[in-house]
Amino acid sequence: MSHKETTIFREALGDNPVIRVLDFLIEGRGLDYSLSDIAENSNIGWTTLHRIWDRLLKLEIVISTREIGRAKLFKLNDGNKAVKELIRLYDTLLYQETEKHLSKRLIAKI
């Protein structure tokens, strides 16, 4: 997906740095990433990520997983109830969008 494309998650919740980070981390849930990877893949600047990161850590939305050399890695905290709800919302939005596209293709074939 190109950085210019939006996702149904960002369409529904707004396109801001926190949502971009959540969108990226939910899509890649279960994996851990360096802050550089998160900034790059969320298409936000390093300074912007640092501005919001402490809040995400404090709310336990993200957790530190390990260190590789000097890089700390983080992942979505899927043990957090709020994160579980965000994942549920993400999956529901994706499912609804997929269903919509599939039904349009089905109707087009008729």
Quick synopsis:
This protein has five helices and three strands. The chain has 110 residues and is an alpha+beta fold. The longest helix is centred in the last third of the chain and has 29 residues.
Features:
about 110 residues; alpha+beta; Arc Repressor Mutant, subunit A; 3-stranded antiparallel sheet; 5 helices; elongated
What does this structure look like?
Strand 2 (62-68) and strand 3 form a beta hairpin. The model has no long low-confidence stretch (mean pLDDT 92). Strands 1-3-2 form a 3-stranded antiparallel β-sheet. It has a single domain (8-109), classed as Winged helix-like DNA-binding domain superfamily/Winged helix DNA-binding domain (Arc Repressor Mutant, subunit A, Orthogonal Bundle), CATH 1.10.10. The radius of gyration is 16 Å and the shape is elongated. The chain contains 5 helices and 3 strands; from the N terminus they run ααβααββα. Helix 2 (17-27) packs across helix 3 (35-42). It is an alpha+beta fold and 110 residues long. It has helices at 8-13, 17-27, 35-42, 46-58, 81-109, and strands spanning 33-34, 62-68, 71-76.
